[in-house]
Design brief:
Elements (H helix, E strand, L loop, with lengths): L1 H42 L4 E9 L8 E5 L14 E8 L9 E7 H7 L5 E7 L2 E7 L16 E5 L3 E2 L7 E6 L9 E8 L3 H31 L11 H6 L1
Parallel strand pairs: 2-5
Antiparallel strand pairs: 1-10, 2-9, 3-8, 3-10, 4-7, 4-9, 5-6
Helix pairs in contact: 1-3
Amino acid sequence: MLEQTEGIQVVVFKKVVVGVIAAVLLVAGGACGAAALWAYDTFGSNGVMRFDAGTITPGPLARATIVDIDRFGATVPYIGQYGRTTLSVSSGERGDPSDTLFIGAAATSAVDEYLRSTPYAVGIRDGDAWITRDVPGVRVPELPREQEFWLAEAVGARPAIAMPAERPLTVVLMHPATVPTGPVTLSIDFTLPDASTWILGLAIAAAVLVLLSLLLFVLLFRMRRRPGRHQVGARGGSHAAHG
């Protein structure tokens, strides 16, 4: 009788252990799957997470839009150290058929000298919106890509730069041919170079964990259905009953 009781306790203990492990694997697989879906929805195929920083609307004659930077920073919890944060700009209006913009960052004194006597707009952040102050001028600025004072610069449909540490710093947004641009939209971009690898790894981990969990649940189900040594229908049970 004692051996029978101990045997039942061992079986129950095994069932509990298998059930707990299966539940833990299922939860872990669900967490990995949710993380993979979040990463794919957030970063997409290009590995960029974008935060809208608002739209600046310069005057119709402005050849450039400038923003003075006191500080610049954006951190992403847990994964910030694995990526790169940049400031990008795009336009909702066509300055030319390629819809190209230039973004550059330089010392404030160098930008002031570059845009002296030219018409430009100053973007000032006011809460969640931008207000502009137009500065009149009569001179057309020189082509920005020919200047050597930029600490960081980029050109394209959505050019982006990493913000230099120097202060005081001014960011210049303009068309590379110095024609008026119309409204420009700023974005803070967090780029994760290995995003696709992370997403694939999380998806595979989720599939493996869920599969292992299901296998353990099947094993647990079979353990529950298996008759014991002294139950009716167990092998040898009928002989024990007749004995």
